Amino acid sequence: MSFEHIAVVGAGAWGTALANVIARAGRNVLLAARDRAGAEALTARRESPRLPGAHLDERVGVAPLAPEVGRYDAILLAVPSQQLRDAARAIAPELRKGTPVIACAKGIERRTRKFMTEVIAESARAALPAILSGPSFAEDVARGLPAAVTLATHDATIAAELARALGSSAFRPYHSTDVRGVEIGGAAKNVLAIGAGIVAGRGLGASAAAALVTRGFAELFRFGKAFGARPETLVGLSGLGDLILTCSSTQSRNYSFGIALGKGQPPSATHALAEGVFTAPVLLEMAEAEGIEMPIASAVVAILEGRASVDEATETLLTRPFRSES
Q: Taking Cα atoms as reference points, which of 144, 147, 149, 117 lies closest to residue 133?
């Protein structure tokens, strides 16, 4: 099984970082920008405007997204979750049966309530859907700083081979077959990171921040179990690990967005590129349909939808009845 020729779709910060990582692993890499103008600009500058200062490795080729990208041995879709369906459709005509197509977005499609691998399966039927997720910032990865992630697909052998093909001493993918668990960790933590940012922006203190992350993880865990995730995945890199990172650094767009909300900025002015904004309402809808209690996620949604102020949502959480922790 050979994954020597790998394509990355999406020339933003994460796509650029992944292309560099794969090139350093010794693979032939194509970075596919979503339009011709973007490809031409990236070819000229060798630097993504989303990741200033991180130059594209000379071994990375650049081209506009086209069906021919589907001919590569494996394709990583490094586009926002709500745009992943279009990216999968673009490569579908030339995709060979069983080609791994790896979602690198952390979210749930809002219109359909579909997880990312489900979107791939619907949009590119020849694909072997996979997911890459974990505690990793694009800037760190692009600079070659150490990071570990989880790569999951239902075929254990291919998951292991892909991990070896993408991995290096600085970028370590651990492989798994718990696709749903990896997807849930990545999607839910973005919503909780908004809540953690609100706590920071409102100046509620380190104790409140620790409580929110801990109780937020309990919500993530309940949601994951209800949707078939394995407990060991939820406490691993793509679950607890990613939650800790995203809830503690302004490099996280979701955390930074939450800080802005906590400081009184309206949601409409601050939500650019924060995946949790789109995931939060659908995550809550899915939880309520299964009878899963997620009060922190509910508070975040109430703030995003303008049904509660930050102070009102906080008071709602603080006045909940006392109960057992278990």
A: 149
| Contact of 90 with 119, CB cutoff 8 Å | no
**Rounded (5°) CA angle 273-76-287:** 55
Contacts of 201 (CB under 8 A, 6+ apart): 258, 259, 260, 261, 262, 263
151 close to 176: Cβ distance less than 8 angstroms: yes
Active site residues: 189
Q: pLDDT of 35-63, one tens digit each? A: 899 899 999 999 888 888 888 999 999 99
Per-residue pLDDT reduced to its tens digit, 250-299: 999 999 999 999 999 888 755 557 899 999 999 999 999 999 999 999 99
The candidate with the shortest Cα–Cα distance to 311, out of 262, 266, 276, 269, is 262
Q: Are 90 and 64 in contact (CB under 8 A)?
A: no
Q: What does the DSSP assignment read for 157-171?
A: HHHHHHHHHH--SSE
Helices 275-289 and 253-262: crossing angle in degrees, nearest 10, is 90
Closest by Cα among 132, 114, 150, 110 to 240: 150
The dihedrals phi and psi of 241, each to the nearest 5 degrees, come to -60, -45
Assigned token pair, 263: 């400081």
- Strands (E) across 111-187 are located at 114-115, 127-133, 147-153, 171-176
Which residue carries 């650029």 as its tokens? 16
Summarised one tens digit per residue, pLDDT across range 116-155 is 999 999 999 999 999 999 999 999 999 899 999 999 999 9
Question: What single-letter DSSP state applies at residue 177?
Answer: S
Q: Which of 100, 105, 162 is nearest to 133 (CA)?
A: 105
How far apart are the C-alpha atoms of 317 and 311, rounded to whole Å? 10
CA-wise closest residue to 147 among 251, 55, 220: 251
Question: Tokens 């992630």 label which residue?
Answer: 149
